[in-house]
Amino acid sequence: MLPEQHNNRAWFAVLPVVFIVAFSGVVPLMTVVNYSVQDILDVNTRFFVGFDWYRDALRDERLHEAFLRQLMFSFTVLIVEVPLGILVARCISRSSRWTPFVLVLLAVPLLVPLNVVGTIWQIFARGDIGLLGAALNGLGIEFNYTQVPLHAWITLVLMDVWHWTSLVVLLAFAGLSAIPPVYYQAAALDGASRWQIFRHIELPHLRSVLLIAVLLRLMDSLMIYTEPLVLTGGGPGNTTTFLSQYLATMAVGQFDLGPAAAFSVIYFLVILLLCWLFHTMVVSREP
Amino acid sequence: MAAIELSGVSFRYPGSTGEAIENLSLNVDDKATHALLGASGAGKTTMLNLLSGLLLPTSGRILFGDRDVSAVPAAKRNVAQVFQFPVLYPRMNVLENLVFPLCNNGWKKLDAAARALEIAKELGIEIVLEANVSALTLFERQLVAIGRALVRPDVALVLLDEPLTSVQPELKWRLRRTLRKVQADLGVTMIYVTHDQTEALTFASAVSVMHGGHILQTGSPMEVHDHPEHEYVGFFIGSPGMNFVKAEVKRGAVRVNGTALASTDHAEGECTVGFRADWAMLAPDGLPVEITGFRPDAVQNGMPVGIASLKHDGNRLHVRAEGLIAPGPSHVQLKHHMLFREGRRVA
Amino acid sequence: MLALDAITLRAGDPPLNHVFTDAAITVVLGANRSGKTLLCRVIAGLTSPHSGELLLDDAPLASYLERPVALVTQSFVNYPAWTVADNIASPLTARGVARSVRDTKARDIARKLGLEALLHRYPHELSGGQQQRVAIGRALAKGARVLVLDEPLVNLDYKLREALREELRGLLVAEGLTVIYTTTDPVDAFAMAHDVVLMEDHGFVQSGAPLDVYRQPKSFTAAALMSEPTVNALSDGKTVGAIRPEHVRLTRPGDGAVKELQLLVEEVETNGTHTFIHGLVGRDGWIVKVEGMVRAEIDRPLQVWVREADILRFESH
After folding, report:
1. In this predicted complex, what is the ipTM?
2. Does the distance separating the beta carbons of A190 and B101 come in below 8 Å?
């Protein structure tokens, strides 16, 4: 804001943060980068291989498939969660004395640990005893998410929607609450329809808050791991194996540390790139 | 003919114990500018919402011309409103904002654009028609908001809710002038709500002073200033407001603690004497007071003139005075006064 | 005694030198963005000056362990979860003063500010005027020698401002504090100030008793700042004249040399007590202030007179 006198001792105050960031982010990442250019046979035997692992990873068919699956999944949940979240937020009264209670209730799914979410839905969707699966089967619809890829996908998307839509709802609700009531009064006097109010008043005012919601959901969904692992284990076949799970199989299951590290770096860069693209193309264009 | 007529209108907010507006009647002339003036909490906002139809009265009737609109909701009343800050549709340009109310009322695009252009010319904003509203200054934005309120030719009433609040102080009078000009040109009825006496007295041909959900007095700016019917009106209008001192009428004179201040032929008994700062002067004898301060507002012919702050019996009084006024005991004499009983003017 | 010793607020700003009169109210008068708030922050110690020093009794203010300066800002800042009593006593709480002492002190201050009946209320239950009184009470409780008030009444309704201004003056004078009060309104200066300091572009333009500054402004800027509404300009090439709105007359004054001018009326404003006629003289915007409610036809020329003796002349640059 204003030029102020510099006190060089202030730098010491920043040091703890520098250490924390270094140890939590930079150092582990550099370790991975280091691994990604070596062939590691055992703890004492390793060779420098340059960018070989990267080349391999980029040519890996299964990786390409996992990548496409990942994009499709992220895209699907965004398409469902954002409009649904806005819709729900608009249905919550802003002035009722029940409003805080409703908001807390909505936030409950956000508090459930990831593997518990997976377990809940694994049971919920089971064809024999699960409430959802058994009900569908009772209605005569053959539902089996362990055998039918489409069913597995539907279950996964439903689970993610159940888990994360509340986040969009809470953000959208905050955004809606910030719109001054006079806008609604003006619209009422202008004879604007409910849709016009949404289109011309609510949506423009929600814009920045929705961008944050989309960014958060995009990053999170790109990194999804625990829930599909618990729910489907990546199956049937590989049809629900997303990037992170593929990576884990490689690194932990097969102990291919070098390729796994190269892949991790690519994965990291892809997420960074997508978020950066989103940010520069949409968020920073805000007037 | 009265364009707007309220008779016996009351309103109570759900869940509250008292009436926000109580048994209020008001006539606003066709094509007139009428101001509702009062402090915050006087019921101005409730009145606005009753007129626009955002609230419906719990009892009483509201007439627009011959049409009873008491139960008609906002969208069907042909009322437009200008708010404290420019309320515009943020992602539209100026033209789109202007035609919006017309298109919602079944106008054809081309006719609506022609009408919008006409209004824009009237307000002097025709050169920014293509601009997005976020690119405009606050002043221009408020002009657009006024344009949106005036664009419908069938508008029965335009409500103005302190429309100059967000405009820079030195530009306020320009916006107000524009408002008055378009009002005269288009012949619309306007009701202007404000807590600022200058706004009310300057803008409107008639002023209603509101307090506690009632209208205390309606009259021309001159009337409400010169002949307040109520103590509160005298206090609220004028800068500083009218002074009031507890007094009694006895043996043909207004007396305060026995001191005769002025002669009167009014009936004997307790009353309040009211006088404006320039109806009184400091003098060697009269009402005893303590001078606590002096605020010059000009120097005329080498002599400071201004308002002396006085204390009488713990009451603060203001009297116009000349010269260098030092703190200390003094007296006040009245050149002119008014008498009030139970808040109402009796003489 | 508080003194500014060659203080510059930002790089490139002119140095500010001033000695504030002890136990008196100094009103710092300037337009928005003239540097008033920054000056307040510097005195309060929230911002360091770019250069120069603040002295209290010839000792640098920075050397005091607890800065003996309290600040009240234009927005009503109080602790929302604390009662009025706790808010007022908060500077004492921070020092670890015992509860009973705090309560007595808070009640004392509340009485002076007319807040006694509200001691157990919370800030959100109060009106704007009351909230600002609580903020002032908190500043008084700090027991500082210097009280800085940064446009404390600007967010209040007009009528309330009128009343609170007078009340505040009485209170501050009685407390014997060195008060620095910033405002954009010359009326505040006339109503409250022992001394007035005019400020423009982060520099001081002139200082002195309000009437002296009004009578003998050193520059056109000074004349304009100490005028409500602002002065009218009359240029004749070599010099520029400043004419106060209250010195433009609608009838020909009898005494001395006069100038006759044509004013094209644009708008007539009134608050009942005074009427302000806005218009054009040549191409300059003018304002005329006359007593009472006066009518004038809009878009018509109006004959006005100015006494030569009332024209303040300055060299034009």
Report:
1. 0.89
2. yes
